[in-house]
Amino acid sequence: MAISSIFVVSDSTDVLTELCAGARSLANRVTAVVFSDEAGANALAGCGADSLFFCPTADAAPEDYASAIADEVKKESSAIVIVYNSIRGRQIAGKIGVYLDTAVLSSINEAEAADDKLFFRRVVYGGTAQRKEYFTKPYGVVTVGSGIFECNATGQTAASISPLTAAPQAGVKLVSRNEKTEGTVNLVAAKRIVDVGRGLAAEEDLAMCRSLAEALGGEVGCSRPVAENNKWMPKSSYLGITGVQVKPELLIALGVSGQVQHIGGINKSKVIVAINKDKAAPIFKNADFGLVGDMYKIVPALIEKL
Q1: Picking from 1-5, 114-118, 165-169, which range would have the lowest pLDDT averaged per residue?
Q2: Rounded CA separation 195/53 (Å)
């Protein structure tokens, strides 16, 4: 191992096991930090970490614990902090980096141990290049999205559970909380994905895409404009460098142009099948199989055959 200790910090419990599995492949000891009460922490004891700290957030925001987390990290002579790459996670990572007096590498897509160092790769220049970096200081902070590490906690013993003893440094007082009601799916765990792009003419046509996904036993994801501009699908469904990064066994791209930002989220798929009426669409350069044609004729026929 290139490093003895890694801390995993996540404001989402859904990805904790995946991040701990990735940390376990890189370090001898893994410590997880979650923002929950004791009951919630106990439910996460099998996440794959050796120890788990919980931070109650009834009267505090997760980022208020950044100083306390940094104090725990400093008890190690050297350590890497892996933070889930959510909006809140990036806030937490920035504050932890300040308290540790170190840099923050955002949105890494690969980590490897070599020559007694941990090397991290991430996309730069709008997706046109990859940069390989490592920390020269004892501590380092990286943000990682879902789909980067293999999710495997098999054979792991239960983590020791304890509260983070230091009090949060509250800069914001929680007044109320309104939970989002939009439905979400775990695209990272999906073996087959139907990826919908701007080639879809209308929102009601998503029913056709969902029928294809159902026939395949898969899930439906989309490009960023479908979720953010058209608002036809939840933002949690868009695939890309700044969205969800997936690696299914099969991904069928329907009307996806294939811009660099989107390709960065799907290029680890084992097989990519592209259907697009534009024969010059960049997606065909990244597809294993490509079909130039009208998806409104092809998809119904494919569903019928399936």
Answers
A1: 1-5
A2: 37
Q: Which residues of 141-170 are buried (b: 16+ CB within 10 A; e: fewer)?
A: bbbbbbbbbebeeeebeebebeebeeebee
Asked if residues 214 and 156 have their Cβ atoms less than 8 Å apart, the reply is no
272 neighbors 239 (Cβ within 8 angstroms): no
What digits encode the pLDDT tens for the residues 47-104?
999 999 999 887 788 999 999 999 999 999 999 999 999 889 999 999 999 999 999 9
Beta strands (DSSP E) in 22-128 are: 27-34, 51-54, 79-84, 104-114, 117-124
Choice among 101-105, 148-152, 169-173 with the minimum mean pLDDT: 169-173
DSSP code of residue 159: P
CATH of 187-305, one of 3.40.1190.10, 3.30.70.2190, 2.60.40.60, 3.40.50.1220: 3.40.50.1220
Report, as an integer, the average pLDDT of 264-285. Answer: 94
Token pair for 118: 């941990």
- Tell me if residue 260 falls in helix, strand or coil: helix
Residues of the chain with CATH 3.40.50.1220: 187-305
**Domain range 3-163, its CATH number among 3.40.50.620, 1.25.40.10, 3.10.180.10, 3.30.565.10:** 3.40.50.620
The first and second tokens of residue 267, run together, are: 């290029």
Question: Cα–Cα distance between 114 and 123 in angstroms, integer?
Answer: 20
Indicate the burial class of 52 (C-beta count within 10 angstroms; 0-12, 13-18, 19 or more): buried
Torsion angle (degrees, nearest 10) of CA 220, 122, 259, 87: 60
